[in-house]
Specification:
Two copies of one chain form a homodimer. In chain A, about 40% of the residues lie in helices and about 20% in strands. The first copy, chain A, is α/β, with parallel strands linked by helices. A five-stranded mixed β-sheet of chain A has the order 3-2-1-4-7. A five-stranded mixed β-sheet of chain A has the order 10-9-8-11-12, sandwiched between helices. Chain A is globular and about 65 Å long. Chains A and B meet through α8 of A and α8 of B.
Chain lengths: ~325, ~325
């Protein structure tokens, strides 16, 4: 076993860890509980021990680790490697990059989880082979990362690529962020379910109706499943989600001109139909000035995008 | 007189030329007719002769030119320095960068006119002191340029920053580009005048009405002037333009997180009231998640942004 890279995907509940060769091929992975309430030093120590165990398990030694990377939920001071205060973490002013670097005795890269996953898809997943790419995560919220000219864009405060909060409807739905008409307020998993719920409550007939009555709520997965089973309302709701995402692709194209947009996150479980309809609405709405060859695809790394991208950002430090 | 930089702003009718010191201070400028119908070689030769005359006029010699830059209307193959075919130019497959470089015996930078003007404001104008900036030109169309992390973004084909064609209204106004609901279809000079014309034709009373009857059309400048003179319709039209531009600023912020947006172009003649209202609608519509310190300002270089930025891009080659 030669030189190795470590990728750490730091979540509020679990920390996922992968070890990779220098070509970003995953050798093995593990995970530990975050247990952030025990304090940052304890968490970092447990991560370091899990990394050491992982490399030993694959027949190597900690000395073979040449670089590592870590992605965390934002916001953070990524330039200085410090978690100032994150939404679901009790850490305050924690110099996590330096702590991990000192403990592993190698350079450590640090970025937010969406950028890290974006870098993973870009270097080793669905974004391979292009220089300009936008990564869009479809989950409870809509987020992402941007690669322009082969580099991650960060913005002036590390908060670029908040692409779910692009406004596409004047005085539209009130988003959780306080704006009206955000893409997220139409196309995220929770808002897709919410739009279906509102239609049911307004009296539309649908096979989702008994489910709502029974469970007191429906999920985005329910919408996908009932659409597949032929429900008309579920089909329309899916369509509206796809249309908003088609508009998103157009807006991203006109700002950044990526050659590829990569969708990721739980919602892509909707499958080919969602992808086809996003492409349909992109084609239907895009300008006629010239043919735009934007590729719209799904993530290929799935849950491994984070550890892969973290290791990949570590490799950039070599 | 020491080393000099040359900036060339190549338009369909005129070519503007400036000579600068290495701190991008304008020493003097001149211009020549483009006369593109005489052929590319003739035009380049006339530009070169005008440059040589300009540096002699300021008491220097062509040998003191260390670099130059040229901005042209797109599209072009900027990577290879070739005008393939531009909207208002008869040039075809013209390697303009190499032609000018050979003639001036110095490295020459080449980019589209909006990017060049963007670089001018960034290095020597209203964008000074920041690392992340968006430049927005408000004219017949709405275009721009993007600086992220101190670099110009180009996109995969040199067509990024087509920011007038971000869609902000579903099924909205039909833009000249073929899309519906583009920012340009609300906020450009021609569409601002068009919205006023439509309101007049729909019977709204306004001091603009006699002007429309008399001239058969009104301009954006008419709208600004009548607003200033107290016309209610002109005021509302101005307000709607500002609101669309406020939404544009929000969308740019969430994609790119610039610390400053610089508006330029003929429309900023509307003055402080336009800037104040753009800021107002930005503040009114922006999320409440956190305070966003985006600065929204007007260009400070005006018509000189192009020659300044071209010279500045030339300096980057040193």
């Amino acid at each position: 076993m030669g030189q190795m890279l470590i990728g750490v995907d730091f979540g509020a509940t679990n920390v996922k860890i992968g070890c990779f060769d220098l070509e970003l091929q995953l050798i093995d992975h593990t995970s530990v509980a975050t247990e952030a309430d025990q304090g940052a030093e304890s968490t970092v120590e447990r991560i370091a021990q899990a990394i050491e165990q992982l490399v030993r398990d694959v027949g190597s030694s900690p000395q073979s680790i040449v670089a590592a990377g870590i992605g965390t939920p934002g916001p953070a001071d990524y330039q200085n490697g410090i978690i100032i205060s994150a939404a679901n973490l009790p850490f305050r002013d924690t110099p996590i990059r330096q702590m991990l670097s000192a403990r592993l005795n190698c350079p450590v890269a640090f970025d937010n989880d969406a950028n890290v996953a974006c870098w993973g898809e870009f270097t080793a997943g669905a974004g391979k082979g292009v220089n300009d790419m936008v990564f869009v995560t479809l989950g409870t919220g809509v987020g992402g990362g941007i690669i322009s000219g082969g580099r991650l864009i960060h913005g002036c405060g590390g908060n670029s690529a908040e692409i779910g909060h692009i406004i596409i409807v004047p005085d539209g739905r009130l988003c959780g962020c306080g704006q009206h008409g955000c893409i997220e307020a139409y196309a995220s998993a929770s808002w897709t379910a919410q739009r279906a719920t509102e239609a049911l409550e307004a009296g539309e007939s649908s096979s989702l109706k008994p489910l709502l009555n029974q469970n007191g709520g429906i999920t985005c997965e329910d919408v996908w499943r009932h659409r597949q089973e032929g429900d008309t309302l579920a089909d329309r709701i899916t369509d509206e989600t796809a249309r908003a995402l088609g508009t998103l692709c157009i807006n991203l194209l006109h700002v950044l001109e990526p050659s590829r947009v990569v969708f990721a996150g739980g919602m892509i479980a909707a499958g080919q139909v969602l992808l086809d309809r996003i492409r349909h609405y992109f084609d239907e709405q895009i300008w006629t000035m010239k043919k735009e060859p934007l590729e719209i695809v799904f993530s290929s790394l799935g849950e491994d995008a984070g550890i892969t991208g973290a290791a990949g950002l570590g490799r950039e430090l070599l």
